[in-house]
Amino acid sequence: MPWIQTHLVVDRSQAPLVELLFENLGALSITLGDAGDEPMLEPAPGETPLWSATRGIGLFAGDTNIDDLRSALDQALNRDTGRHLQLEVLEDKDWERAWLERFKPMRFGSRLWICPSGHRVDAADAVVVDLDPGLAFGTGTHATTALCLRWLDGADLSGKTLIDFGCGSGVLAIAALELGAARAIGIDHDPQALLASRQNAERNGVSGRLAVYSSDALPPSPKPLVIANILANVLVELEPVISGWVAPGGELVLSGILREQAEEVMTAYSDKMQFDAPMQQEGWVLLHAHRR
Ligand SMILES: C[S@@+](CC[C@H](N)C(=O)[O-])C[C@H]1O[C@@H](n2cnc3c(N)ncnc32)[C@H](O)[C@@H]1O
Fold first, then answer.
1. Looking at ligand 1, which atom is closest to the CA of residue 139?
2. Which of 42, 192, 195 to mutate to test the pocket of ligand 1 (most atoms within 8 A of CB)?
3. Which residues, judged by CB distance below 6 Å to any ligand atom, belong to the binding site of ligand 1?
4. What is the pLDDT of residues 6-20, one digit of tens each?
């Protein structure tokens, strides 16, 4: 059976009404997204900010009466919605298969792989992290994660304990453990991320070596490696905390930084850290430093 997907762009104040209308009109799923160019990077847990121009997307059964839908929207929004409502017919397909086709194993550096369900990696020297996209950030598809995974692949982690600050799905901590790190501590302020990290660690057989903490728990003692893929403003604001977690002579890896923000982040850490040249990918940079 085909489906009908409707798109309607409204301003922020009307978005909750569109969501409610789509729901009352029988939408099977509703998505609110950015209709302009207004990225929302990392809202705090529990916050659901909307865009000044918000695109409401409703998925309806193929036999939905579109004229009824249009007139209900016109009435509720008090405007001629018909001119703005875009319709798209989605042919039915094997969605599980489509998902598997989209998410394929990805290699980072020379031997580190992220492998979603339904796939396998055959390379003889492969170090494989089994991971599917979930509610927490971190699959390797975003450049900030990819940079960290590439860095981890090239690092000597054997026997080290690391802190993964902003652990999200736990992808970095789990990759580090698979690559030879002894223990990892994952920290995040989002309960969903803590749960995802625990579940992913379990799935990869490293849960005995990954401890996961909420960021309001007691701060850990300094460790030889700290990796933090958070946004630049958080990295700058939390410099004293993050620097304090790096043992003397230890290493710090910072990601989540746009190229034009790199200077500001390095300046914030320069008293305690000696930086190498940044790694770059798609406008994002990774900064690596040793503690002085
Ligand atoms: C960009 S994601 C990185 C996830 C994963 N480490 C990766 O590399 O893909 C950033 C993570 O940091 C967490 N985060 C953001 N600000 C934080 C803060 N102030 N304290 C603790 N965690 C924070 C978010 O909840 C999110 O899970």
1. 9
2. 42
3. 42, 136-138, 144-145, 148, 166-168, 171-172, 188-190, 193, 215, 229-230, 234, 256
4. 999 999 998 998 899
CA gyration radius, the chain: 22
When the pLDDT of each residue in the chain is averaged and rounded to a whole number, the result is 92
Strands 161-165 and 223-229: parallel
The tokens for 98 are 């489509």
More confident residue, 118 or 220: 118
CA dihedral 209, 191, 256, 223 (to 10 degrees): -30
Facing residues of 59 across strands?
A: 5, 29
* 137 Cα: distance to centroid of ligand 1 (angstroms): 8
| 8 A C-beta contact, residue 132 and residue 103 | yes
pLDDT of residue 211: 96
Report the sign of the C-alpha dihedral through residues 92, 93, 96, 102, in that order.
negative
pLDDT tens for 87-126 read: 888 888 777 667 667 789 999 999 999 999 888 999 999 9
